[in-house]
Specification:
This protein is 33% helix and 14% strand. The protein is globular. A hairpin with a 4-residue loop joins strand 5 and strand 6. The strands form 2 sheets. Strands 5-6-4-8-7 form a 5-stranded antiparallel sheet. The chain contains 9 helices and 9 strands.
């Protein structure tokens, strides 16, 4: 077993979605639909990750916590040739502030709360608890990596991971329009947080299937339908921990099939999280 595979399995066991990287910190693309990142790094297939190959594809969406996939014979050649490994911060409910140089690090020390820090080749990763929209070059030498992005795994780092601060969110330009929940939507109270209300996994699967159908059957106001559907799914399934990256990808797939962009999907999802007070969960 390679060192990268051993680390990947250990991370996956703690709930961190992982994927291998080839030289140059680039994800593998092992099927015609994803080779050379022609898919744009988005989950544009029905099922993201181990695609038709079946090997790691789709950039960040290939990240998984399933040991059966990570250690499968199909992934074995990839791990043998991997230069390093990465993880999906948003899938692990964290945000990475990637500081590329000493000037960026000094800025962070002066403007952001101290948190868990990982040393990188040129700078540092500052890791905060909570997911948000990702963006590159939010200021000189600073990238934000969380939802729909990946970050290199460079070790656990040092320090305590603190909650994602408003100062980091302010680095990323938010959508000009913030949607409000539709009338009559029942939003779970904070007292339900951490308690799973699902009797069986079928209950969640049926809910996701119904959400996909609602988006697919939209004939007008697709933007609003996508947002309301995301909001409804999160209000029911967003606090108990059962909602996985695969479920999210199914909803994004349905929205993109109706012509929505990946950016709009991310904005709608982030707005729904914020509206329901889940952005820091």
């Amino acid at each position: 077993m390679s060192a990268h595979l051993r680390i990947a399995l250990g991370l996956a066991a703690t709930g961190v979605p992982v994927l291998p990287l080839r030289a140059g910190k680039v994800p593998f693309g092992n099927c015609p639909a994803c080779a050379k990142n022609v898919c744009g790094g988005r989950p544009n297939m029905r099922t993201p990750g181990p695609c038709a190959c079946p090997a790691p594809c789709h950039g960040w969406a290939a990240a998984t916590t399933d040991p059966g996939v990570i250690g499968s014979p199909a992934w074995a050649p990839t791990w043998r040739s991997a230069a390093t490994l990465a993880y999906h911060p948003g899938g692990a409910s964290v945000t990475v502030v990637d500081l590329d140089d000493q000037a960026a690090i000094q800025w962070a020390r002066e403007n952001l709360p101290a948190t868990r820090t990982v040393t990188t080749t040129r700078g540092e990763h500052w890791i905060y608890r909570g997911a948000m929209q990702s963006a590159n070059a939010v200021r000189p030498g600073v990238d934000v990596k969380s939802l729909m992005a990946y970050a290199r795994w460079l070790g656990p780092g040092v320090g305590d991971t603190v909650a994602l601060p408003a100062a980091v969110r302010a680095l990323v330009k938010e959508p000009s329009t913030v949607h409000r929940p539709p009338q009559g939507l029942s939003v779970p109270l904070g007292g339900q947080r951490g308690t799973c209300p699902h009797r069986t996994p079928t209950y969640l699967d049926r809910g996701i299937a119904m959400a996909e159908q609602r988006i697919t059957e939209a004939r007008e106001a697709v933007h609003a339908t996508v947002y309301r559907t995301f909001l409804a799914v999160l209000s029911t399934h967003g606090r108990c921990g059962c909602l996985t990256e695969a479920h999210t990808a199914r909803l994004f797939n349905a929205a993109q099939a109706k012509g929505e962009t990946a950016r709009h999907c991310t904005d709608a999802w982030t707005n729904a999280l914020t509206t329901l007070g889940l952005s820091h969960v």
